[in-house]
Design goal:
single chain, about 375 residues, alpha/beta, two-stranded antiparallel ribbon, 18 helices, 9 strands
Length: about 375
C-alpha cells in the first residue's frame, strides 16, 4: 500500500501536544509498522487515525516543521526559569474560559452594566501591600466574625468564592479539561490564571492542586485584579518575579495579617514541634495548615522543606475525597453566577438550549434540570 512521507519532527510534536509519545501512537496504529511510522512513513488511513488520536486537523501532519509554540496573549507570571511551553490542555481550558468571559461581557453590556471600580484600582500606584489587602478585605466584606463560623478551610474557600461572585468576579475551578477526566490539568504547569476586565473579571483555579492551596491561589489572583493584570500564575513561594511576589504578599496579608500572625507565633511555646504550632495556627486563623505554613515560610519562621512537607500532606488528604454531584460540579467548574445566568436565560427563551449547553459544557437536555436544581440549592 502506498505510504505518505511525513515529517517525523511534526509527528513527534503532534504526539507530545496530545500528551503522548510518538512510539505510543505508532503502537496504536500498527504494531507491525512502528519503525516506518517513527520515520514518517504512514498510509493514508494511518495518517487519518493519527490526527484523530492527536486531536489535530489532518492537514497539520503535512507541515514540514512543527508550528511555533502558541502564546496565551496574557502575561506569563510563572516563576520557573525557562518554563515549558504551555500545553494543549492549558489552551483548551484557557480558550473555553475566555469564550465564556466574552459572552458574559457582551451580556453585561447589553443590560447596561457599569465598570467595577476595584478592577485596576491600584494599577501604577505605590500603595503598600497592607493598603491593597485592606481594600480587598473591605470589598469582600471579609471580617473576623465570618471566620469564627467556619468549620474548615474548604468553608473559607466557598465563602471567598461567594463574596467574589457577589461583587462581580466570576470564579471557575476545574482539575480537568472540560468534563474529560482523562485529561487532568498539570499543577506544575500552572495553578491559576486571571483575565482582568472592567465588567467581567475572571479567575480560574486549577482544581488539580491541593484543595488547601485553592484559597491562597484565589486571593493571589485577586491581587492581580486589583493591580489590573491578566496573566498565568503558579503562585509559588520565594518567587523571583516581582509581580508574583507582590500578589503573594497581598494574598498572605488578606488571609493572615502579618501583625496578628507575629503576635500569634510569639505567643506559642518555642519548645513545641513546628507542625504543632502550624496546626494551632489553623484553628486560630480558620485557614488551612498550608496557608499557615506558607505565612511562616514568608516570614522565615520555617524552612522550605517543612512547607513542602505540609503541602504534600495536604495533597494526600485531598486524594481521599471522591467526586461530587454532577450538577453541583457544573456550578464549580463554570462559576455559580455564570451558570445561574446562562441557565436562567435559556429557560426564559433568550438563549437557546444548544448555546447554553455549549457555554456550560453540558448536554442541552440537562439545562432544565440544572436550572431546577440550582433554584433548590441554598443561596
Amino acid at each position: 500500500m502506498y505510504k505518505l512521507q511525513l515529517s517525523p519532527p511534526v509527528l513527534d510534536w503532534a504526539a507530545a501536544d496530545a500528551g503522548l509519545s510518538l512510539v505510543a501512537i505508532a503502537e496504536k496504529l500498527s504494531r507491525h509498522s512502528v519503525d516506518d511510522i517513527l520515520q514518517g512513513r504512514l498510509t493514508e488511513p494511518q495518517a487519518e487515525k493519527f490526527a484523530q488520536i492527536a486531536k489535530i486537523p489532518l492537514g497539520y501532519l503535512f507541515m514540514q516543521e512543527p508550528p511555533r509554540p502558541r502564546q496565551a496573549g496574557v502575561a506569563d507570571f510563572r516563576t520557573v526559569v525557562g518554563p515549558a511551553p504551555l500545553s494543549k490542555d492549558f489552551f483548551d481550558v484557557f480558550d473555553d474560559v475566555q469564550y465564556k468571559q466574552d459572552w458574559y461581557r457582551d451580556y453585561l453590556e447589553s443590560v447596561g452594566a457599569t465598570p467595577l471600580e476595584f478592577v485596576g484600582k491600584f494599577s501604577g500606584s505605590d500603595a503598600s501591600v497592607q493598603q491593597i489587602a485592606v481594600d480587598v478585605r473591605q470589598a469582600l466584606h471579609l471580617n473576623e466574625a465570618d471566620r469564627r463560623h467556619l468549620q474548615s478551610p474548604n468553608d473559607l474557600y466557598a465563602l471567598l468564592v461567594e463574596r467574589c461572585e457577589n461583587i462581580g468576579i466570576l470564579v471557575f475551578k476545574n482539575g480537568v479539561v472540560g468534563n474529560n477526566t482523562h485529561r487532568p490539568l498539570s499543577v506544575e504547569e500552572f495553578r491559576g490564571f486571571v483575565l482582568c476586565d472592567s465588567l467581567a473579571p475572571v479567575i480560574f483555579i486549577n482544581g488539580a492542586d491541593a484543595p488547601a492551596a485553592w484559597v491562597f491561589t484565589l486571593v493571589h489572583e485577586l491581587g492581580h485584579i486589583w493591580l489590573g493584570d491578566s496573566g498565568i500564575s503558579d503562585a509559588k513561594p520565594n518567587t523571583h518575579n516581582a509581580r508574583e511576589a507582590q500578589c503573594n504578599a497581598i494574598a498572605a496579608e488578606v488571609l493572615v495579617p502579618q501583625i496578628l500572625f507575629r503576635e500569634f507565633w510569639a505567643a506559642q511555646d518555642s519548645r513545641q514541634p513546628l507542625l504543632q504550632i502550624i496546626a494551632a495556627g489553623r484553628l486560630h486563623f480558620r485557614v488551612s495548615e498550608l496557608v499557615i505554613a506558607r505565612r511562616a515560610l514568608d516570614l522565615s519562621l520555617v524552612s522550605r522543606q517543612l512547607y513542602d512537607q505540609v503541602y504534600e500532606q495536604s495533597k494526600r488528604h485531598a486524594q481521599a475525597n471522591g467526586g461530587g454531584d454532577f450538577y453541583r460540579t457544573v456550578n464549580v467548574r463554570n462559576s455559580r453566577k455564570f451558570t445561574a445566568r446562562v441557565s436562567s436565560l435559556a429557560m426564559s427563551g433568550m438563549v437557546s438550549f444548544r448555546e447554553a449547553g455549549r457555554l456550560l459544557n453540558v448536554a442541552p437536555a440537562r439545562i432544565a434540570t440544572l436550572y431546577q436544581k440550582n433554584h433548590a440549592l441554598p443561596a
